[in-house]
User: Fold ABC transporter from Nitratireductor pacificus pht-3B.
Amino acid sequence: MTAGVSFAARLSFEGISHSYASGAETLRDVSLAAEPGEVLCLLGPSGSGKTTLLRIAAGIETQNAGRIRLNDRVIAGPGVFLPPEQRSIGLVFQDFALFPHLTILDNVRFGLTALSPSEARREAMIALERVGLETYASAYPHVLSGGEQQRVALARALAPRPAVLLMDEPFSGLDSRLKDAVRAETLDILRQSRATAIVVTHDAEEAMRMGDRIALLKDGRLVQTGTAEDLYRNPSDPFVAGFFSELNEFTGRVVSGAVETPLGRFPAPDLTEGEEAIVAVRLSGFQVNQQGGTIPARLASRRFLGVVEHLELAVPGADRHVRARVRCGTLAPGARDIWIDVVPADVLVFARHSFETSGESA
Ligand SMILES: Nc1ncnc2c1ncn2[C@@H]1O[C@H](COP(=O)(O)OP(=O)(O)OP(=O)(O)O)[C@@H](O)[C@H]1O
Assistant:
């Protein structure tokens, strides 16, 4: 069956700033929009303000400055505050928040107070069918697996046909084996329902799997927004790059348009001569062999990880081991002195002044 929503809406945040009563600023001038029907992932480390932004959109928290719009209508802003129940915004929490003493149908029916009892029942059954759990309507939540409970929470949020669905770390309570399947099912249901969705996660891979676009937050500021590929290939700074892949970092100065590192000279066309730079090399960015190559290295340790192995390499001039991931079987079991070549596509060069370094430099 097709799962309808009332309309696919655009939810926009315009210059949102917020602080809790304790004083510290949680969000600083965040401007961002989820386009109609898209899944936007809000990604960032713990404490970066993701949940607070969702709470402001839902009307559980109020911003100090800025506006929230649903399509053209301001739902929160100077002198305007639409109560949560009038916003047409659904919420799914991390812990599913199902009522243990209510049947699954009654859990889903809970938010449908504006409808007559028979209409509410019908709409709740439609929502349960949408997530494939209609046969459990009269059962209680404890008989369901974690993944099924998550689907009930999703059905409950979708039952009132919200224009926008907000999901706060919706898969974090599931074990890793279940997570992939539930995530894929959730994405299918979101696509079918055509709701605009904002999904909070601190896991870059989850954001890449789910998001049509990703917005990365750090310390209450929006750092970069784009597709997974944009953020991976063209990160705006080493923080963004480091969120999507592990990096070896080196610092150096731009001399004759390039930065010298123990792994070679890397062009820095966008940087000023003499400027301090950070050169970041992804762990996947190495070719290794025992016959010959550009840079000599000695294997300090190697760890089998299945498809790939993790190498720690002593490289002349580097004051820390260089880390690399290569396909298992590339090096012989007893290999010690080897050669490495760096893959240019896995090297990113940044101006150092644009970033306070994370401290991870080789
Ligand atoms: N009710 C509150 N009162 C005071 N400070 C709070 C409150 N809730 C959150 N904070 C603080 O606000 C900041 C942002 O928290 P928020 O929960 O929005 O971040 P988050 O990115 O969702 O983090 P997490 O992934 O850990 O949930 C944190 O420093 C947090 O400690």
User: Anything to note?
Assistant: The first helix runs from residue 50 to 58. Helices lie at 50-58, 104-109, 117-130, 146-158, 176-193, 204-210, 228-233, 238-244. The longest strand covers residues 25-34.
